[in-house]
Amino acid sequence: MRPQSVTHVLRVLILACGCMAAATVLAADAANPADAAGVVKTVKGTVRIERAGGSSGAAIGSDVYSSDRVVTGPESSVGITLRDTTQLSAGANTTLELDQFAFNSTTHDGVLHASVKRGSLSVISGKLAHANPDAVRFSTPTTTLGVRGTAFIIEVGDKGESAR
Amino acid sequence: MKAVIRPQRLASAAAFVTLAWLSGCSTPPDKIILLPDPEGKVGAVVVHSANGEQTIDKAYAGVDVAQNGTMEKTMDSQSGVQARYGALLAARPPRPMTFTLFFLFDSATELAPESPATVAKLKAVLATWPAPQVVVIGHTDLAGSQEFNDRLSLRRAQSAAAFLVKQGIPARQIEIAGRGKREPLVQTADGVPHKMNRRVVITIQ
User: Fold this and answer.
1) Taking CA atoms, what residue in B is nearest to A89?
2) Does the predicted model carry a pTM greater than 0.90?
């Protein structure tokens, strides 16, 4: 009796999780494009956007969401404008994770956390950094950057770090 | 015995130091380089590592951060950055552009006489912009109540957005908001009509 009920509980849990995952995917699909963190503006070579539930090739106009990972191949690059007007470009052999993004276009409150796991990134900060600098953070395997309204380049030295 | 052990210890210590030095060298540092923004302004970046914190606030100044967190300040130049990061910088999205349309007093639909020229420019820019996202914010002058102006500014934004849809911009790419009389272009006392403040600001990004 006991092992059975445990199995039953497990099954219900798995079922519930599956449903929640499906609901999440549906919600993401149905999300208003205004909820996207940003949009791809330039693409060269091989660029993939990876997210829970799959990955796809990036094209001009592709939406980028909070928690997405952007991966570029050799001799490739991608340019992304976030909703708060932050402008990003990633160079060749780059893994960029958009850990967290939220932006309220009325109050200009929100958060932007991104990390460069390998490769290079250029940033021109936007309204978030202007309104609330502490809400914006970029990191590499060795550093965390606070942004005081400006443009900068990040290059990760460790070429061996795999795309994770 | 002692005389034998000592050289061994020394040798292994030397080997350890060499290894540490080699591994330290084999991984290049992470590099952070500050640039002037496209309008020429230079801000600042605060770089934190396991070893501390450095602030860079000059154009082309930078910090190299080793794997162990050691930071070293650097100074590059425009040509140096261009040579090393030209491809990266070429991939940057186009800079957002803003256009302002002015309205007649109390009107949400009648554009001021100089507006058609702005509209023509806007259309030309939209035609070539990659995946345009358009943000339309309506504003009013300081004549009238907050509530009245909130509604009027939103109606102005809506009418500008409807115009953009007619020009072929998908409605889903347009975000609208009304800010009422909170952000006048020209500061006036409350209650004062001013044509420069009756406007819609359209940002293409």
Assistant:
1) B92
2) no
Between CA B194 and CA B172 the distance in angstroms is 32
Residues B72 and B130 in one domain: no
Enter the ipTM. Answer: 0.77
Structure tokens at B89: 């910088």
Q: What percentage of chain B has pLDDT greater than the value 90? A: 50
d(CA B184, CA B36): 29
| B103 vs A120, residue with greater confidence | A120
Q: Which chain B residues in 53-82 lie under 8 Å from chain A, judged by CB atoms?
A: 57, 63, 65-67, 69, 81
- DSSP assignments along A32-67, one per residue: -GGGSSEEEEEEES-EEEEETTEEEE--TT-EE-TT
- Rounded distance, CA A147 to CA A161, Å? 25
Provide the residue count of chain B: 205
- Residue A101 maps to a domain: yes
Domain that holds residue A4: 1-30
Domain housing B163: 97-204
Query: What burial letters (b/e) apply to B68-97, b meaning 16+ CB within 10 Å?
Result: eeebeeeebeeeebeebbeebbebbbbebe
Mean predicted confidence (pLDDT) in B130-141: 90
For chain A, 164 residues long, give each residue's pLDDT as a single digit of tens. Answer: 344 444 444 444 444 444 444 333 333 333 344 479 999 999 999 999 999 988 999 999 999 999 999 999 999 999 999 999 999 999 999 999 999 999 987 677 899 999 999 999 999 999 899 889 999 999 999 999 999 878 999 999 988 644 44
Question: A163 burial class (0-12, 13-18, 19+ CB within 10 angstroms)?
Answer: middle
The tally of domains found in chain A comes to 2
* Domain match, A88 and A43 both: yes
d(CA B42, CA B65): 21
| Residue B186, domain member (yes or no) | yes
Chain B contact present for A78, CB below 8 A: yes
Q: Does B44 touch chain A (CB under 8 A)?
A: yes
What stretch of H or E contains B28?
none
